[in-house]
Amino acid sequence: MTALGLSLETLEIPLVHPFKIARGVENVARTALFRLHWHGIEALGESVPIARYGESVESVADFFREHPLRADDPYLLDELLTSDIPPAARCGLDIALHDLIGKDCGKPLYRLLGLNPEKTPVTSFTIGIGDPALTLQKVAEIGDHPIMKVKLGLGDVRAEIETIELIRSKYAGTIRIDANEGWDAERAVRILGEIERFGIEFCEQPIPAGRPEQLRYIKERSKIPIVTDEDSLTAADLPRLAGCVDGVNVKLVKTGGIRGAIAMIHTARALHLKVMLGCMVESQVSATAAAQISPLVDWADIDGPFLTKGDPFAGITYERGKIVLPDGPGLGVTGAKR
After folding, report:
1. Domain residues for 84?
2. Which 3-state string (H, E, C) describes the chain?
3. In this structure, is residue 173 part of a structural domain?
4. Domain total of the chain
5. 319: domain CATH number?
6. pTM above 0.85, yes or no
7. Are 315 and 215 in the same domain?
8. Is the pLDDT score of 316 beyond 80?
9. pLDDT per residue over 260-296, tens digit each?
């Protein structure tokens, strides 16, 4: 059997606007791009390592430089995607393997997973933290997109409330908010109580991770549903969150790829938690990979293609925010061949 060939490169894509959250700001999407070769097929994968968890594009490349693939058959997923591979490294390989298998079978990945492409959700469009003028500019650029996610979390209670008030004065669609661990429990209760009149769909990760009872405290005092992100990395994290929150955000780079994401979704369902499928600031490779499983979830935040400019790849498209999956084999992503 022909050996699996893996190569990695760094992909850098400029952003439309600097993307600021409570922890910092990005001007470029910087990712690890995977290319797998097998029997004349080139497959694509991508990972967007999260510095908060001690991972980077360099750490992903270093791992595979030191650890050769453990099988030459791409269908041996249990052997190739072992749990001792760091999540970001495992994610890129997992995506590339699923792309390769789909291309080998000549079928879109969503079909191999038994999913209906007509049941994809409408995604939110995220705007980062900015001053009032920049915020209004971003709201105007979003136009009539039906769902917006607003980054908050710098800690100034009045400024957070005024930001939502300003946005709601110009935007009639659904608003979600994400504090990225920027508040404490009391501040979260106060802010959520003040902004519930603006019809907020949910609040994502209001406080630092690792405090499920404080999440329960907020949930019991807020009419706005609470969703975790940094608190919910994999399926194993979910039992302790049951009853403390209303939903969880699933991201491929946290779960180690598509297989881990599906396991997390099913675990959430068993615990009666709603599910959002999220992304990082990334290319169409990662965004399209996540979108393949989007028919399984309640909410989507797959908006990487909105935030970047000059993406060398083409994949998902949108119809008034509803995700439209490509119909090519595997991920269906095209472009940027070597």
Report:
1. 5-106
2. CCCCEEEEEEEEEEEEEEEEECCEEEEEEEEEEEEEEECCEEEEEEECCCHHHCCCHHHHHHHHHHCCCCCCCCCCHHHHCCCCCCHHHHHHHHHHHHHHHHHHHCCEHHHHCCCCHHHCCEECEEECCCCHHHHHHHHHHHCCCCEEEEECCCCCHHHHHHHHHHHHHHCCCEEEEECCCCCCHHHHHHHHHHHHHHCEEEEECCCCCCCHHHHHHHHHHCCCCEEECCCCCCHHHCHHHCCCCCEEEECHHHHCCHHHHHHHHHHHHHCCCEEEECCCCCCHHHHHHHHCCHHHCCEECCCHHHHECCCCCECCEEECCEEECCCCCECCCECCCC
3. yes
4. 2
5. 3.20.20.120
6. yes
7. yes
8. yes
9. 999 999 999 999 999 999 999 999 999 999 999 999 9
Q: Are residues 26 and 154 in the same domain?
A: no
Whether residue 17 is contained in a domain is answered as yes
Domain termination site, one of 106, 134, 166: 106
d(CA 73, CA 77): 9
Domain boundary among 106, 121, 151: 106
Is the residue at 335 inside a domain?
no
Tell me: the pLDDT tens digits for 195-217? 999 999 999 999 999 999 999 99
